[in-house]
Amino acid sequence: MSAPDVHAPDAPAPVPRGRLLQWSDLPLALGLMALGLGLRLRWYSGFGLGDDSILKGEINSLITNHTVLADNGSYRIMWWFPTVASCRFFGLTELGLLLPIMTAATLGIGLVYLIGKSLWGRPGGVIAALLLIFHPLDFAWSTMLASDFIASFWFGATIFCTLRATSHPEVEWRRRFWVLAAVGVWCSYHTKFSGILLLAPIGLIALTRWRSLDRSVWYFVATMAFLVPATAFLWYGLTGDVLAPLHYELFYQGLTGPQAVTHAMNAITFWLYPRWFFYPDQLGDLLHSVYPHLLVLFIALGWLMGLRSSLEIFWWLLLIFLGMQFNVQRVEGVWITGFRNIRHGHVFVYPLVLLLAGYFAGLWRRLPRTTTVLLAALLAVSFWQAIQLATKTRVAFADRRDACTFIGTLKPKLIFADFQVRPTCELQRPPGMPNSQPWTWREPHAYDRAIQKQELMTVTNAYLVTGGAREPYYGCLDCILRAQDVPRDRWKLLKEFPDPIGYPTSWRLEPVRIWDSIPPPAPPAPPEPAGP
Hints:
The chain has 532 residues and is mainly α. The protein folds into two domains: 342 residues, no CATH class; 123 residues, no CATH class. Helices cover 54% and strands 5% of the residues. The protein has 18 helices and seven strands. The strands form two sheets. Strands 4-3-5-7-6 form a five-stranded mixed sheet, covered by helices on one side. It has a two-stranded antiparallel sheet with strand order 1-2. The N terminus is likely disordered.
């Protein structure tokens, strides 16, 4: 991908560099944020990811024991601090844990509006916000326990401060924005270790705008000169390791020691991020809609059409992508890859939509009606993809919530279910079941259907969970017990939940059902002894 043409003729008029946010912007920005939040809540997913119970345990330790667990969540201060505050107010509930993430996602819409307006005027801000609202990955994952959204917000806030520090006409404000940019790097780093990569685009943005640099840039240097050793000293005092965040990430992702070979790099893992840009995922959905495809087309044809986007935003996207893509290490004699999760790619979303918004803003100034039609068509396609993506986790997570809520109303006894049901039930703790009332569990053989059938014949005095979906991307589908394998002379159906899909899919073969064991028939009484 080549850099966008920033010297093309017929470029948009420069955006005024004084006061950016005006009173007339507030209803528009707040309306866009409300639209994004409302749509996301309509297709809400909630608890259901594999790490949810771990993350809840970290917050619980902070609230109850006032202790930060020594794992890869300990350094993510900008995630756990607002989450602890939220849970102290709303309790250690789904709302308390997810509210900071949904808040960051909603504020991100306003942030993208501000960046877009600062570069291309109000049309650029509106287009950028709309593209983010209907971006499938942002749409679907913003209602799950994914701290990457908080990281993306701080990444965006840092770049915004850098852009304003190199464009604001007042010296005092340039100094303030440089200080805030340095603080933004610190906040980004303490949300995800990859925040350290922001130093590269900040440097290139400064070089791109070198004519506007003055001595105020030293405020950034001075602030970083204070924060870097202070942070190193902090972690050394707490752990004896100045790079504790990095080592925590590597260790708890299994990227160190003998277990690291399980993450050995191959062609599939290495090319995951590019594939997720341009190809459907394993469930057939486009995580980024067709935004990357259109961006490549605009870059290729922009010089012919006299359109441009932002070179500064391009550096942001390119350098963060390269840092994430080439995050490989040599461990135990093999090359391994890290940070290869769908949600980790959310840090690409803001620069992606902003680059595309720049081209649409330029096209709108020339052909407003044509651009409006094209943009509407793009948003319709993206909305369709967003619903497809969100539906999978929404339905899958609701299946387990329904099962746990229903079981919580029953008389306690053994629950026979695959290992993916228990964490959700423990997270959920339905209101009908007091916290002091324990659940007991037994898990079937994970993958062998024949053994699972045999186990169903031997389990007694238990409830059984079959069907439904699990975590659709990284969950175990073969572990799910099936209704067709249940011996009807040993189990009776208590509840079959309505099927929101109505047909089998690769990630959900059948509705979720709850069964109760039938007591085995009493053995026949021994014959009475014969009389004398």
